[in-house]
Design the sequence.
């Protein structure tokens, strides 16, 4: 008997979801440990995508800020052959960087 037919006989609680049976969470988890209904695949996928997009935006914002600080001489960029470049405060601009940060704080 093929897989879907075998699961269909068990009822709607065991519908196929990419390689897994839904409904098994409730039957194998004691009531005292349940923490709400299981999250659907669509909700899980949407949440993961939103998190990935938020991380990507954060990385892009950080890269723009680093580039601005390098372009204005506040940071020195140290390239690497084996990893991403590293950055350090430009000692010649440290006083100016402190003034800039104080003015940004308001």
Sequence:
């Amino acid at each position: 008997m093929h897989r879907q037919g075998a699961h269909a006989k068990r009822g709607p609680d065991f519908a196929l979801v990419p390689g897994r049976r839904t409904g098994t969470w409730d039957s194998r988890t004691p009531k005292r440990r349940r923490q709400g209904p299981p999250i659907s695949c669509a909700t899980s996928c949407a949440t993961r995508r939103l998190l990935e997009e938020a991380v990507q935006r954060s990385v892009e914002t950080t890269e723009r800020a680093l580039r601005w600080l390098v372009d204005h001489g506040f940071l020195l960029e140290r390239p690497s052959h084996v990893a991403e470049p590293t950055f350090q405060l430009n000692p010649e601009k440290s006083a100016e960087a402190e003034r800039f940060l104080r003015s940004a704080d308001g």
